[in-house]
Specification:
568 residues, alpha+beta, YbaK protein, Rossmann fold, 3 domains, 9-stranded mixed β-sheet, 16 helices, RNA-binding
Length: 568
RNA sequence: CGGAGCGUAGCGCAGCCUGGUAGCGCGUUUGGUUCGGGACCAAAAGGUCGAGGGUUCAAUUCCCUCCGCUCCGACCA
């Protein structure tokens, strides 16, 4: 492929639309172009890299025994009613009607379609286990598309679904996918870390996310360097540590606190540490108000609370609800005298001598003892785990990092087999539910994660496995016949040797070509110029190294092939 | 959806406050000089100033509405 014949335009300036390095670079290097928010066109170089990622995924899926299929992206909404997800995924799905007014959706994922298909195809235990997968475009009406390919409305996902005769067998399928994921991300040149995760709307009991550590990641990752415990911040647990000792214990006492509402203001007012306050949050869970207490210096972890309540929808109460539930304006809620269900973080168990709102305007209570003064339904781990908290396994301090979720593996159990009555005949002649697992990789997101993790100040540094081209061949003197002859020869020989080569044959000055070569970032750069030839050959340089080797023309291809082999 | 910001040439931006019909850099085209880390000179093409409405003799500029984009929160591969 030659630059002069390729649709690739590089940009000197960072695009205004991009915030993070990988997004800027992908646009600058001419890999993607935005159509609209969350919708991107893959340009020739972008597709090449994308196909390489997809191919790695495909090879490893096949190796793990999964079978590739391809399901429609357009699906009848009725299937989603059956699983109950039309309600839960609701606005996240693109919906449309066909010409006879039938409700359709653009598939955000394919549990329903797969389960229905397997239900029809599988009748005997002899056909199991079976894992199918596809690499296909998914549609999600994201509330906020972000960071280019990171969170898009239309994206390419590899989704796999396993079907087994039992939970034990399903565990083996899960493990096979887990292992395949480890290999996939490694082959893509990514440092990805499996962490325990929440299951969200997909459902199921247990899941692992594969996180690419990056400061620009959207998720918090809790990590224990001591024992290896790792979890998504949403799910992460902690061992409740010691709290400040209350200055005194005693009887409840009202204190006038005009306009003192926030914890910061309270700390200043009472002159004591934040964890001695009871932060009282009023939520609305599936339409009903509930209250939750966390130490004043902590944040509530909403997913954990939602899981504890077992509700579909959980949101902070509005001012009017707070007023009617507590009888006080925002900022003065407290546990004492509340009539709605009340929950509390485990760290507050046996807490005494605390300060909370009095459910009365401009008033707080001192010396609150939860056991004595309030009715707490349950003490659970409900706070957002942060840096320095104690590991739930080993008690050592935890660290917090940022991560990009590139893959997610779920143990689904029988959630979908029940909805679709997906059963098989056991050896004993019984009809039994298939036990499922589902496994996703964001292929387009993975591609961008590769860039996020592999770049420097000058541009992308592609791992050879997913680079659009392995070699960029720079023709520095396009008007010099001898140089052009060498370029032509090397291009042909490299192609014959099976090495992807891209030739920069533009009539530009050398500096422009060097800059663009660094920006696009193919792993091996070969320079052919009259000066180099006079010095004895062509120059070979790795994108990630400063060393330049001058190699005689007749040895160049062998040298390059040798370097390619070293990469793999 | 809540909060913040931005829409002016393919890209990055200025102009707007204090109305008078648009400018800079990059890129593109042509000619010339250059030629090993984003050259220089000259000429040229390229703009319904996001859309609609209002105020005004006159609106890119002031006012209103809408749309789009980006960032921070809840969702997720």
């Amino acid at each position: 492929m030659r630059w002069s014949r390729t649709l690739i335009t590089t940009l000197r300036d960072d695009p205004q639309e991009a915030e993070i390095a990988s997004h800027k670079l992908m646009v600058r290097a001419g890999l993607i172009r935005k159509l609209s928010g969350g919708l991107y066109t893959f340009m020739p170089f972008g597709v090449r890299a994308l196909h390489k990622v997809a191919q790695i995924v495909r090879e490893e899926m096949n190796r793990a025994g999964a079978q590739e299929i391809l399901m429609p992206a357009l699906q009848p909404a009725e299937m989603w009613e059956r699983s109950g997800r039309l309600a839960t995924m609701g606005p996240g799905m693109f919906r449309l009607k066909d010409r006879v007014e039938r409700m359709m959706v653009l598939g955000p994922t394919h549990e329903e379609v797969t389960t229905e298909m397997m239900c029809n195809e599988v009748s005997s235990y002899r056909q199991l286990p079976c894992t199918v997968y596809q690499i296909q475009t998914k549609f999600r009406d994201e509330i906020r598309p972000r960071f280019g390919l990171m969170r898009a409305k239309e994206f390419i996902m590899k989704d796999a679904y396993s079907f087994d005769v039992s939970y034990e067998a399903a565990d083996a399928s899960y493990q096979a996918m887990y292992d395949a994921y480890v290999r996939i991300f490694k082959r893509c040149g990514l440092l990805a870390r499996p962490v325990e995760a929440d299951t969200g709307d997909i459902g199921g009991k247990w899941s692992h996310e594969f996180m690419v550590l990056a400061d620009s990641g959207e998720d918090g990752v809790i990590d224990c360097p001591a024992c290896g415990y790792a979890a998504n911040q949403e799910r992460a647990e902690r061992k409740a540590g010691p709290t400040s000792t209350p200055t005194q214990d005693g009887t409840l006492e009202e204190v006038a606190t005009p306009n003192v509402r926030t914890i910061e203001q309270l700390m200043a007012f009472f002159k004591c540490p934040g964890d001695l306050f009871l932060k009282t949050l009023i939520y609305v869970a599936d339409g009903k108000p509930v209250a939750v207490l966390v130490p004043g210096d902590r944040e509530l972890n909403e997913p954990k609370f939602k899981r504890l309540l077992g509700v579909k929808k959980l949101e902070l109460a509005d001012d009017a609800t707070i007023q009617s539930v507590t009888g006080a304006p925002v900022g003065f809620a407290g546990p004492v005298g509340l009539t709605i269900p009340l929950y509390a973080d485990q760290a507050l168990k046996d807490s005494v001598g605390r300060i909370s709102g009095a459910n009365k305007a401009d008033t707080h209570l001192k010396n609150v003892s939860l056991a004595r003064d309030a009715k707490v339904l349950a003490f659970e781990d409900l706070v957002m785990v942060g840096s320095g908290d104690s590991c739930p396994r080993c008690g050592k301090p935890l660290q917090i990092k940022r991560g990009i979720e590139v893959g997610h593996v779920f143990k689904l159990g029988t959630k979908y087999s029940e909805s679709f009555d997906a059963k098989f005949l056991s050896p004993e002649g019984q009809r039994e539910l298939m036990v499922m697992g589902c496994y996703g990789i964001g292929v387009t997101r993975t591609l961008q994660a590769v860039v996020e993790q592999n770049h420097d100040a000058d541009g992308i540094c592609w791992p050879i496995s997913v680079a659009p081209f392995v070699v960029t061949l720079l023709n520095l003197d396009t008007k010099d016949a001898a140089v052009c002859a060498v370029v032509d020869q090397l291009e042909k020989e490299l192609q014959d040797a099976g090495v992807d080569v891209f030739v920069d044959d533009r009539e530009d000055r050398p500096g422009v070509k060097f800059k663009d070569a660094d920006l696009i970032g193919c792993p091996i750069r070969v320079v052919v110029g009259s000066k180099g030839l006079a010095k004895g050959g062509v120059e070979i340089k790795l994108r990630t190294s400063k060393d330049v080797a001058i190699v005689p023309v007749d040895q160049a291809v062998a040298d390059i092939v040798g370097r390619v082999k070293k990469f793999v």
